[in-house]
Design goal:
The structure holds 2 protein chains of 2 kinds. Chain A is of the alpha+beta class. In chain A, about 60% of the residues lie in helices and about 15% in strands. In chain A, the strands form 3 sheets. In chain A, strands 1-6-5-4 form a 4-stranded antiparallel sheet. In chain A, helix 13 runs antiparallel to helix 14. The mean pLDDT of chain A is about 80. Chain B is mostly helical. In chain B, about 75% of the residues lie in helices and about 0% in strands. Chain B is globular and about 85 Å long. The N terminus of chain B is likely disordered. The chains are: A alpha+beta, B mainly alpha. Chains A and B meet through helix 1, helix 2, helix 5, helix 6 and helix 7 of A and helix 1, helix 2, helix 3, helix 4 and helix 6 of B.
Chain lengths: ~375, ~375
């Protein structure tokens, strides 16, 4: 009985470990690759940065002179034909000798099975993707090439510029609305609230075309204001609904005593409701922040392809995938730059993060 | 709602229009609006360094909304009490309603109208666009793939999420395991696209899958392009990787909600772990299972970024989200694009209504 229990625990933990490894390896591979030299990435897998057994070149010997292609050649006590030497010969000590070049001009290269690691890391990739101007890259032969930086820093700043107001504005507007619906009396309150909640079912795609038409007319197309308003509006139904659920369940007595003391709605909202609603506000803030930061479709349409001044990280990276799809030293670094902020939020605020995503699960 | 009445009693003696209070408020409101418009024009045409513009834009955007609320409210409170009570609620809910009507409610009607017209909206074509949504060859392919995403993606996400939740519940390493599985939720679909393009790359020195294939004697494959129709499956894996953490966390919480006595009683009755799983756990978390499933269904119906970044919808991987974008912005067929959006809307409605009903019964915070 005890043995089967231990076996079961082992099976559970083993399966879990396997799944976790499968889940983590792609990200780890990307992360490691982003620090590898551009040539290394093309010629050896990122997993070779870990110690492993492989054939490693350990030395070069001069070729013996005066040999003939047709005669067997004896080297270090082993006799083989020239063709065999060219293909590589396993020596008694375990190493491999390969004759490179012709019978007259060439060299003998010695390979040995050794524990090795391609642990040759660089920050050049990050320098190249983040720089706004030209970057000089020195290669191993001492030469240097000048490449144009991919200017990810400016996209990063744009992402922040889009995300911060696109998080704060809907929270502010939704909190006012939630308070209004929960604690004020006015004609049409119920029907208007139902309208707000009903908007949860509208998929983004419905809104994109008409709103874009309006933006072109108002010259809001490609501006920060335009994308803030769009994100604010698309986040509003959920924000209002969540905050209403929270604010309407706050104890009635607190508000009533404040009214008797002569406080106005605005004061109560500002001094009482907002501080009391912090947990709900924080959950929604994290959800909305990540949603906007990671959004691609809304940015693509309202900022617009080719708008290099205002384009956000996701657009910049998608563009890199298209234009420099095989330059993995750039793509890996760029992808990681875009993940820094959400990963920091994830590790720093994990509990709120999970709660935020749970709360945001019904976003349309 | 008696508090409104209580409130009006406290502000007595200002039944008439008090210009000395109203005028400053109106002037301030006017200045705020002028300032906001000037700020917008300045930011739009400014040539200052990027970071400076960004900081100014943030201050202008966030501060602007706050200032607008504040001055509007001040103006309303300077009105006679009867008017304050009447107008103030609309200061609170008005901005939200205006935005929602402009960005969501009106577009439903406008898109519906657009969907009945031809590509540039000049000629009424009836339901022709809707016919095209379901009969045009490329759209048929997109729907086929969407169904594949829907069934395969959803069942993998829910199934794996459930398995991991059950396993983690019995492990000492629950927290770290759940964190690792949930982590991809932080990554954008564009970022995930890059990560998995890397994994599937043709070069066996780059792509892990091909490294495995070639080292065991096989031939490297261009998984995402040439291995049709299986390439759809490889794209679905990306979504499964992103979304399983979400399903796992919800299901895990539900499993923890099952009472210990119930499980203990079942064990005493001689039930083994499999019977407990199917007869006790599953029925007890049925509600959450359905919520997770419907949320995933909505998510898959609208899938766009992953495919757009990884294959662009080529090589037999079209989905309806990509079709919408292509019809609108590549082909310029506004009518058909609108029809696709409407069909998507109609497909989402029943699932969403069901979801909201479940959601309101669930503890959110």
């Amino acid at each position: 009985m005890k043995v089967t229990k231990r076996g079961a625990t082992l099976l559970v933990n083993g399966t879990l470990l396997l799944i976790c490894v499968l889940w983590t390896v792609p990200t780890v591979g990307l992360f490691i690759s982003s620090f590898r030299d551009r040539n290394d990435i093309q010629h050896s897998g990122w997993w070779t940065v870990f110690p492993h057994i492989a054939q490693v070149q350990t030395g070069q010997l001069p070729i013996p002179t005066g040999q003939s292609v047709d005669q067997p050649i004896t080297l270090q006590g082993v006799t083989k034909t020239f063709q065999e030497w060219k293909a590589g010969v396993k020596m008694p000590d375990g190493s491999t000798l390969i004759w490179q070049g012709t019978i007259r001009v060439g060299q003998l290269v010695k390979f040995e099975q050794q524990l090795t690691a391609n642990a040759n890391f660089t920050l050049l990739n990050y320098q190249e993707v983040t720089a706004g101007q030209d970057v000089t890259i020195r290669d191993t032969n001492g030469g240097s090439t000048v490449v144009k930086g991919e200017n990810l820093v400016s996209a990063f700043v744009n992402s922040l510029t889009v995300t911060i107001p696109a998080t704060v504005i809907p929270i502010l507007i939704a909190a006012f609305a939630a308070y209004g619906f929960a604690w004020m009396r006015f004609p049409g309150r119920r029907i208007l609230f139902i309208l707000v909640v009903a908007m949860l079912v509208v998929p983004l795609q419905i809104a994109l075309v008409p709103v874009l038409q309006d933006y072109v007319k108002l010259q809001l197309n490609g501006t920060f204001l335009g994308i803030w308003l769009a994100h604010a509006a698309f986040g509003l139904p959920l924000a209002t609904y969540l905050l209403y659920n929270y604010i309407s369940t706050l104890p009635r007595e607190i508000l009533e005593s404040a009214f008797i003391d002569g406080a106005s709605h605005f004061t109560i909202f500002q001094r009482l409701i907002m501080p009391l609603s912090v947990p709900a506000l924080a959950s929604f803030a994290i959800f909305q922040f990540l949603w906007v930061w990671n959004d691609y479709l809304v940015a693509l349409i309202f900022i617009g392809i080719g708008n290099r001044d205002n384009e956000v990280l996701t657009m910049r990276i998608a563009d890199l995938v298209g234009s420099r799809g095989q330059d993995w030293h750039l793509l890996t670094a760029a992808a990681f730059v875009s993940m820094i902020v959400p990963l920091a939020v994830f590790f720093g605020l994990q509990r709120y993060f999970v709660r935020g995503l749970m709360a945001g699960s019904v976003k349309g | 709602m008696e508090q409104t009445a209580a409130y009006s009693n406290t502000r007595s003696g200002d039944a008439g229009l008090d210009l000395s209070r109203l005028l400053p408020a109106l002037i301030l409101l006017f200045l705020t609006v002028v300032g906001l418009i000037a700020g917008f024009l300045f930011l739009r045409d400014s040539t200052l360094p990027h970071v400076v513009i960004a900081v100014l834009a943030i201050i202008w955007g966030v501060g602007g909304v706050g200032a607008l609320f504040y001055t509007l409210n001040w103006t309303v409170e300077a009105l006679p009490i009867k008017w304050t009570t009447r107008i103030q609620p609309f200061i609170f809910v008005g901005p939200a309603l205006i935005l929602l009507i402009w960005f969501l409610a009106a577009p439903v009607v406008r898109t519906l109208i657009d969907s009945l017209f031809n590509s540039d909206g000049t000629q009424f074509v009836g339901f022709q666009n809707f016919l095209d949504v379901f009969t045009k060859r490329i759209n048929v392919e997109a729907w086929r793939n969407n169904l594949l995403w829907l069934f395969l993606g959803t069942s993998l996400i829910v199934g794996l999420g459930l398995i991991i939740a059950v396993l983690a519940d019995r492990s000492r390493f629950e927290r770290i395991a759940k964190s690792l599985i949930f982590l991809p939720m932080a990554i954008s679909m564009v970022g995930a696209g890059v990560i998995w393009k890397f994994v599937f790359d043709v070069n066996p020195n780059i792509g892990m899958i091909n490294a495995g294939v070639t080292s065991s004697g096989g031939q490297a494959q261009d998984w995402l392009r040439l291995v049709q129709p299986w390439n759809n499956l490889f794209l679905i894996i990306v979504m499964v990787w992103l979304q399983t953490g979400f399903a796992m966390v919800l299901l895990s919480a539900a499993i923890k909600g099952i009472s210990e006595e119930l499980l203990e009683a079942a064990r005493l009755d001689g039930a083994n772990e499999f019977i407990i799983f199917f007869r006790v756990i599953i029925p007890n978390i049925a509600g959450t299972l359905i919520t997770v499933t419907t949320t995933t269904v909505i998510f898959t119906l609208k899938i766009f970024d992953i495919i757009w970044v990884m294959t662009g919808g080529q090589f037999g991987t079209e989905v309806i989200g990509v079709r919408f974008y292509r019809e609108m912005f590549t082909t310029g067929n506004q009518g058909l694009a609108s029809a696709i959006a409407i069909v998507l809307f109609l497909a989402v409605i029943p699932v969403m209504i069901y979801n909201l009903r479940q959601f309101s019964q669930r503890e959110t915070f």
